[in-house]
Write a structure and sequence with these properties.
This protein has about 350 residues and is mainly β. The protein has 2 domains: about 240 residues, Oxidoreductase, molybdopterin-binding domain (Sulfite Oxidase, Chain A, domain 2), CATH 3.90.420.10; about 110 residues, Sandwich (Immunoglobulin-like), CATH 2.60.40.650. The chain is about 10% helix and about 35% strand. The strands form 7 sheets. It has a 5-stranded mixed sheet. Strands 7, 8, 11, 12 and 13 form a 5-stranded antiparallel sheet that branches. The chain has a 5-stranded mixed sheet with strand order 18-24-23-20-21, with no helix packed on it. The protein is globular and about 70 Å long. The relative contact order is 0.16. The structure holds ligand MTE and molybdenum atom. It comes from Streptomyces albogriseolus. It is an enzyme of class 1 (oxidoreductase). Its EC number is 1.8.3.1.
Length: about 350
């Protein structure tokens, strides 16, 4: 059953209606390796634009030999189509674990569902930039959309950029389709960028302009938001790009009250760019005992991997923990306090789920 104007299932956890921000409940997200469009999380900074695909054009300009103005048909007919199953993850995914330590004012308290996986089909950004003749001095590529966010200072259309090397890697798509259907309006119709393995903020929806630049975008969402704030050591702050190793518990949900007996615990893990998940362990007793769980095959290179395990839980209060390691041997930080930051970005401490068993 779907609800409302954005064709989402009626049990979505809606954090805000305008702008629309919603994540699927853990049970729904855990159900399939490829997330149905009605279940896919959505993160928006402003009103969702309704663009008519017939009038829509993509401008490719800046430091290029041949600026382009492309229709959707041009993109489909002049470039080879590529397809990939990609997990998108918001930089705010799992922020609720940080707010449990200390408030993160003004930011959405996302649970573990600000992440979803879809099969995207489109043209490779690298092919389009090659066609335009990207100049050697173009060190960054900016993506512009028409949605104006009231949260930006000053209010402005959404624009971010990625470094040239990332833009030219063939896995970056200009996608017109999601799960074999045209992109839904809330997910960026008619065309969005898909940057696998990077924070969702770089996967710009409702794309209208690609600009090759010498410097990163100076727009609010590149220069101010989606950065770790400056410190004495790093006076410029840190621009967020690739997402780190992470895992989460999807079911049961935190605070659930359950009957005694076997309880299935499900979740996911995903590694950072260029890495794979090597191991996931789950503890049914607050970290005294750990068992290694089997992982599903990834739905695509770098996509999430689901896991499930069953514990016979004793009556009383139970704390379930999970942790993962990647192919370089790196693990996840144990405490949410150790990863707390003022905007609550990229939470990847061990997930903690409190259950009450009767
Ligand atoms: N693109 C535009 N134009 N406007 C936005 O607000 N939000 C970004 C990104 N692209 C955004 C955008 C963020 S922060 C995320 S996490 C993803 O889109 C969410 O994509 P989804 O809504 O398809 O899940
Ligand atoms: Mo995001």
């Amino acid at each position: 059953m779907t609800m409302g104007m954005w064709d989402k299932r009626d049990d979505m956890v809606v954090h805000g209606r305008e702008p629309f921000n919603a994540e699927p409940p853990g049970t729904a997200l855990a159900r399939a390796a490829v997330t149905p469009a009605d279940t896919f999380y959505s993160r928006n900074h402003g009103p969702v634009p309704r663009l008519d695909p017939a009038d829509w054009r993509l401008t490719v300009d800046g430091l290029v030999a041949r600026p382009l103005l492309l229709t959707l048909d041009d993109l489909r007919s002049r470039f080879a189509a590529a397809e990939a199953t990609v997990t998108l993850q918001c930089a705010g995914n799992r922020r609720a674990d940080l707010t449990a330590v200390r408030a993160v004012p003004g930011e959405t308290p996302w649970g573990p569902g600000a992440l979803s996986t879809a099969r995207f089909r489109g043209a490779r950004l690298a092919d389009v930039l090659a066609h335009a003749g990207i100049a050697p001095e173009a060190a960054h590529v900016a993506f512009r959309a028409p949605d104006v966010s009231p949260s930006a200072d000053p209010p402005q259309p959404y624009e971010v950029s990625v470094p040239r090397d990332r833009a030219l890697t063939p896995d970056v798509l200009l996608a017109w389709s999601m799960n074999d259907a045209p992109l839904p309006p809330v997910h960026g119709a008619p065309l969005r960028v898909v940057v696998p393995g990077w924070i969702g903020a770089r996967s710009v929806k409702w794309l209208v302009r690609v600009t090759a630049r010498a410097a990163p975008s100076d727009g609010y969402f590149q220069a101010t938001a989606y950065r770790l704030p400056p410190t004495d050591d790093e006076p410029d702050g840190v621009t967020l790009g690739p997402v780190p190793l992470n895992c989460a518990v999807l079911t049961p949900s935190d605070g659930a009250v359950l009957p005694r007996g076997p309880v299935e615990v499900t979740g996911y893990a995903l590694a950072g760019e260029g890495r794979t998940v090597a191991r996931v362990e789950v503890s049914p007793d607050g970290g005294r005992a750990w068992s290694r769980v089997a992982l599903d095959e990834p739905a695509g290179p770098g996509a999430w991997q689901r896991w499930r395990t069953t514990f016979d839980l004793p009556a009383g209060d139970v704390l379930v923990l999970a942790r993962a390691w990647d192919s370089t041997g790196a693990g996840m930080p144990e405490s949410p306090a150790s990863v707390w930051n003022p905007k609550g970005y990229v939470t990847n401490s061990w997930p903690r789920v409190r259950l009450h068993v009767r």
